[in-house]
Amino acid sequence: MTARIGVITFPGSLDDGDAHRAIRLAGAEPVALWHGSHDLDGVDALVLPGGFSYGDYLRAGAIAALAPIMTEVKDAAAKGMPVLGICNGFQMLVEAHLLPGGLIRNAHQQFIRRDQRLRVENATTAWTSQFEAGQEITIPLKNADGGYICSAETLGRIEGEGLVAFRYLGVNPNGSLDDIAGLTNERGNVVGLMPHPEHAVEPGFGPDTPAAMRSGVDGLAFFTSAIAAVVSAAA
Q1: What is the pTM of this model?
Q2: Which entry of 20, 121, 198, 199 is annotated as an active-site residue?
Q3: How far lies 118's CA from each of 17, 20, 165, 167, in Å?
Q4: Is 196 among the catalytic positions?
Q5: Is 97 a catalytic residue?
Q6: In what order do the strands lie in the sheet with 164-168?
Q7: Which of 5, 16, 41, 3 is nearest to 196 (CA)?
Q8: Which residues are CB-contacts of 204 (< 8 A; sequence separation ≥ 6)?
Q9: Other CB atoms within 10 Å distance of the CB of residue 151
């Protein structure tokens, strides 16, 4: 089967096209979805892409979390559909309470763009199964509101239950608690992270590596992991 992965466009989305490209390169069919719709068009998985939905008014992701299609996203997530939130999409997931905590302005109060080293903390999710726990990867990062926060009680639960999916290595670029770069829910089907895996899927367009400039493709495994999860569920 060919997995069909929906990419939801919100007003202000700017990485939806990149997500489509990453999905195609991974071997699945990207499906364009619209924030004002209540139709997921029968997709097998969902991506909430990066950008500045609704201009990041109120809080980043807060208005998008109330968009009509998010009702269907919540229902699909509750039934086990793989859902990935990238940057602004991660902000939507926490605002919609599909992941715990919140995201605030970077500690240094500035927009940051860098190729960011990460450590894979949880390799059992629908979006990380083709990584190994402890694996170090490099994924582009670009955000202004990427500081992860939560209560001490929530942080203890996240750490204790292994819900940290990715952790920053080398430098904490935004002041996130415990160097948290991404999270998963308990079921492992919903994952959110601030770095952009869709920008590291094709040689010549990704981060630099010791082998060659712009040759990094560590982001591709996010999407191939989701395809494997969909195929496994259908078997």
Answers
A1: 0.97
A2: 198
A3: 24, 23, 10, 5
A4: yes
A5: no
A6: 29-34, 4-9, 45-48, 83-86, 190-193, 180-184, 164-168, 112-120, 136-143
A7: 16
A8: 214, 215
A9: 11
Contacts of 144 (CB under 8 A, 6+ apart): 56, 60, 105, 106, 110, 111, 112
Residue pointed to by tokens 């935004």: 174
Active-site residue, from 35, 87, 95, 150: 87
Which CATH superfamily hosts domain 4-234? Class I glutamine amidotransferase (GATase) domain (3.40.50.880)
Q: How many Cβ atoms are within 10 Å of 181's Cβ, its own excluded? A: 29
Average pLDDT over the chain, rounded to an integer: 96
Q: Which amino acid is at 211?
A: A
Alpha helices by DSSP H, listed for the chain, are 16-26, 69-78, 88-95, 152-160, 220-234
Of the chain, the percentage scoring pLDDT greater than 70 comes to 100
Say what the pLDDT of residue 51 is.
Answer: 95
